[in-house]
């Protein structure tokens, strides 16, 4: 659905902020900064062996590396990293949300996935997003974004348990220990965490428990102070002791359902906050889905991704199939980018027409991922001219260059987080998780220390019978999350993923094209400026991309428009965390050098 502008999720830049705080406060009286734990150096690239982790956050990456050093495997490390992100990046991801976990098993050489997407409550009506007072759709902001009605049944706790049970070597209790430590001892608030909280101040102030946790004394926590979340530490301890049944049944399930049905509104808020439908029965009925991954061949590589309910694997896969028909590596850069942009636009047209939760709609996944279908789409791209957009979805009957009703996409989210992990045995995890909006629904479950998602805003607002992403009780809203693992000759080559709403798809696609076709190293492929064509009339692009390519892409007919929104000072698209597997058992872990303040890559044994 269309997104209204949303606050950008900025990464915390802790070390820099501590220096600033020290300078401001005077080193001798610096109690808060002195209390800070040593922060692992934030580094966007690390090369070595014995295992690796890449995420947006140094504490979270360190949590994963600790588990690897103690003998845990990639799955154990991924869960530990994700749980730590729930503490330090609580506005992006946590047990109040959902995600998609992709796993390569070194022993069986197979890729498996877990769909831990949120579900719509069983009793959610088709017109849930229509305001009964006006008969019109609720405005996206603030009604749908800050609401109980957009809260889906969370899947993250079940995902962690399922991943550990299937492939891990540690119990949930063990995997949660590093995160419990961070939540109990706290982390030092820096400018970015402070700013994120401020961006959400009106929303957070609308709920008594959220204000209590994130606006202590009525304001965002100050830079240099230690932020503790003992409630979340206790919730994690509960999950560790009792298992996820303590989340999906019993008192906590009751409190989650109550928080969605009767959001704990502050008495003085003027926000409307439509109530939701989530019940204890929904939580009890929730289960993850062990899914076959999507798979396409691309220039001798096997690219594995997430099948629906995410549109990530099918859309990235279709675009790669279209692009494979061109020799991008021998083209001038502007021409290669032209093919990248139009392949994205075509794949997005098909995503809109055909992709939804396969439990509710018939998704023609096999066709969408077939070379034959790609051929009927690739023929539409003219060598010297951009496709007029929005372009139509393709015919599934195999007829080339068809026409149908176009669909466009506006959502451009910046929440969510991605992590990748590998271990000394060569297992690999690529995991994207989210609570949707930065700050999710804004609702903290009272006394439990975590925010509930607003993931159901990913459904289409208005119900149309032919829309694969229409609201249905129990259904998973269509996602764009694209955790990806690429094999070469059956062995891991790359693992990559990103946040960014529907731009996730183009960010993963562009990173792959940069690395595989355009001669860039993985760090270069991540750092390169991004553009995202989602079958709209214009192409969203970072300012650096516009500076570099506007004059050469304009003659094709593209209109590049700066990404970002009214809240955003830096117009960034995505935040990649990735791994590349090098010869002789070495791994290159890579994260963003600049976007979101830079990510954190680490290896067990640096080279
Ligand atoms: N809810 C989005 C999705 O599943 C991700 C949110 C974001 O990245 O802003 O596609």
Automatic annotation (TrEMBL):
It catalyses: an N-terminal (5-L-glutamyl)-[peptide] + an alpha-amino acid = 5-L-glutamyl amino acid + an N-terminal L-alpha-aminoacyl-[peptide]; glutathione + H2O = L-cysteinylglycine + L-glutamate; an S-substituted glutathione + H2O = an S-substituted L-cysteinylglycine + L-glutamate. Cleaved by autocatalysis into a large and a small subunit. The keyword Hydrolase applies. Residues 1-35 form the signal peptide. This is Glutathione hydrolase proenzyme. This enzyme consists of two polypeptide chains, which are synthesized in precursor form from a single polypeptide. GO terms for molecular function: glutathione hydrolase activity; leukotriene C4 gamma-glutamyl transferase activity. Pathway: Sulfur metabolism; glutathione metabolism. It holds the Pfam family G_glu_transpept. The active site is at residue 416. InterPro entries: GGT_bact, GGT_lsub, GGT_peptidase, GGT_ssub_C, Ntn_hydrolases_N. Its EC number is 2.3.2.2, 3.4.19.13. L-glutamate binds at residues 117, 458, 479-480, 501. Belongs to the gamma-glutamyltransferase family. GO terms for biological process: glutathione biosynthetic process; glutathione catabolic process. Keywords: Acyltransferase, Glutathione biosynthesis, Hydrolase, Signal, Transferase, Zymogen. It comes from Luteipulveratus mongoliensis.
């Amino acid at each position: 659905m269309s997104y209204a502008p949303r606050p950008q999720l900025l990464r915390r830049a802790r070390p820099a902020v501590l220096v600033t705080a020290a300078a401001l406060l005077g080193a001798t009286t610096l109690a808060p900064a002195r209390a800070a734990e040593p922060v692992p150096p934030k580094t966007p690239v690390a090369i070595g062996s014995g295992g690796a982790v890449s995420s947006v956050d140094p504490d979270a990456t360190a949590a994963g590396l600790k588990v690897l050093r103690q003998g845990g495997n990639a799955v154990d490390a991924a869960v530990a990293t994700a749980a730590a992100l729930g503490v330090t990046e609580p506005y992006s991801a946590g047990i109040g949300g959902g995600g998609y976990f992709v796993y390569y098993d070194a022993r069986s050489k197979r890729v498996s996935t877990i769909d831990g997407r949120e579900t719509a409550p069983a009793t959610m009506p088709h017109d849930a997003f229509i305001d009964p007072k006006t008969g019109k759709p609720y405005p996206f902001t603030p009604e749908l974004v800050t609401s109980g009605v957009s809260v889906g049944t969370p899947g993250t706790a079940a995902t962690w348990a399922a991943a550990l049970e299937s492939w891990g070597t540690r119990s949930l209790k063990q995997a949660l220990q590093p995160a419990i430590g961070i939540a109990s001892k706290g982390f030092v608030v820096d400018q970015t965490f402070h700013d994120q909280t401020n961006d959400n101040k009106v929303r957070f102030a609308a709920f008594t428990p959220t204000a209590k946790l994130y606006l202590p004394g009525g304001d965002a926590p100050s830079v240099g102070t230690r932020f503790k979340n003992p409630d979340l530490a206790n919730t994690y301890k509960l999950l560790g002791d009792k298992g996820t049944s303590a989340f999906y049944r019993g008192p906590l399930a009751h409190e989650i359902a109550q928080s969605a049905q009767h959001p704990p509104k502050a008495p003085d808020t003027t926000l409307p906050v439509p109530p939701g439908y989530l019940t204890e029965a929904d939580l009890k009925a929730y289960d993850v889905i062990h899914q076959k991954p999507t798979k396409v061949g691309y220039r001798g590589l096997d690219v594995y991704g997430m099948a629906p309910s995410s549109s990530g694997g099918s859309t990235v896969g279709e675009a790669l199939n279209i692009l494979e028909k061109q020799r991008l590596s021998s083209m001038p850069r502007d021409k290669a980018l032209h093919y990248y942009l139009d392949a994205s636009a075509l794949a997005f047209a098909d995503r809109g027409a055909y992709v939804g939760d396969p439990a509710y709609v018939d998704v023609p996944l096999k066709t969408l991922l077939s070379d034959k279908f790609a051929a009927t789409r690739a023929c539409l791209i003219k060598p010297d001219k951009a496709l007029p957009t929005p372009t139509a979805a393709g015919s599934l009957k195999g007829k080339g260059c068809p026409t149908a009703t176009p669909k466009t996409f506006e959502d451009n989210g910046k929440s969510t987080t991605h992590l990748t992990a590998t271990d000394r045995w060569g297992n690999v995890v690529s995991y994207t998780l989210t609570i949707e909006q930065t700050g999710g629904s804004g609702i903290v479950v009272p006394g439990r220390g975590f925010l509930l998602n607003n993931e159901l805003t990913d459904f289409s607002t208005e119900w149309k019978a032919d829309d694969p992403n229409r609201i249905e009780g129990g259904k998973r809203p269509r996602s764009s999350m694209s955790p990806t693992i690429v094999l070469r000759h059956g062995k891991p080559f790359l693992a990559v993923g990103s946040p960014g709403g529907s731009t996730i798809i183009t960010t993963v696609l562009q990173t792959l094209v940069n690395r595989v076709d355009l001669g860039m190293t993985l760090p270069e492929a991540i750092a390169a400026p991004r553009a995202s064509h989602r079958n709209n009339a214009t192409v969203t692009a970072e300012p650096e991309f516009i500076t570099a390519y506007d004059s050469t892409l304009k003659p094709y007919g593209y209109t590049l428009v700066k990404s970002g929104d009214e809240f955003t000072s830096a117009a960034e698209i995505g935040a990649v965390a990735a791994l590349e597997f090098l010869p002789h058992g070495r791994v290159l872990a890579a994260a963003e050098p600049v976007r979101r303040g830079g990510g954190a890559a680490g290896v067990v044994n640096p080279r």
